[in-house]
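The records we work with from here on pair a chain with its fold. Taken together, the tokens spell out the fold as the letters spell out the chain. To see the layout at work, look at the sequence and tokens printed below.
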Amino acid sequence: MDTETRFRHTMDSITRSSNASGLADLVRHAAVLIAHLDGHPSMADAPEAFRATLYAAEGTTHLHTLAGLAWRAGLLWDRPDDTTADHPRAAFAGCLPETSAHPAVSAASAAARAAAIPLAVFGHDYRADLAPQGLSLAPDGAESVECSWFIDGRATEPVSGRAGVTRAREARNAALIGVRDVLAARGWSVHLLASRRTATVRVLNLLATPPR
């Protein structure tokens, strides 16, 4: 059985399963298989939201998060033209479903994947899901995207503990500067928003517009 056929069988199995452990195994397998189908004609029309979902699954080990990504991947497999499709058990990679088709959000997600930048994963049930870690994307007008960085479920700094604040600030600054460099190298117009009201510079987020 070739890779494309195995991938299709795996995705069909995801749409028929409801067991969290089984879904986690299936979506991990699908993530491995799709990596071998990059550039394949069968994937030409796959929306970025679908690719991002499986990309996030490849870097995840948390059972409920994987199951949530499997639910999202299954929805997109069945309804590739409806990236806003939602389900109470679904989890979303990099952005919310209602913004995933925004051109700048989609393009930034693809650029992040190509550079192996982790996408934050958001679920409906934060008690069961692992706290989001990584890049979060949101539209900024019709043509631009706002990039934020989540650490332990927060896009802002901890409210207390100097050591924790310092670690989070250094990590978030480095991550967003890295995202800026990746997008700038691809011809994007980028602008880091930073605060200098703290002892060290605090990068808040990044605004980016793809090349015309």
Observations:
- The chain is about 45% helix and 15% strand.
- The longest helix spans residues 162-185.
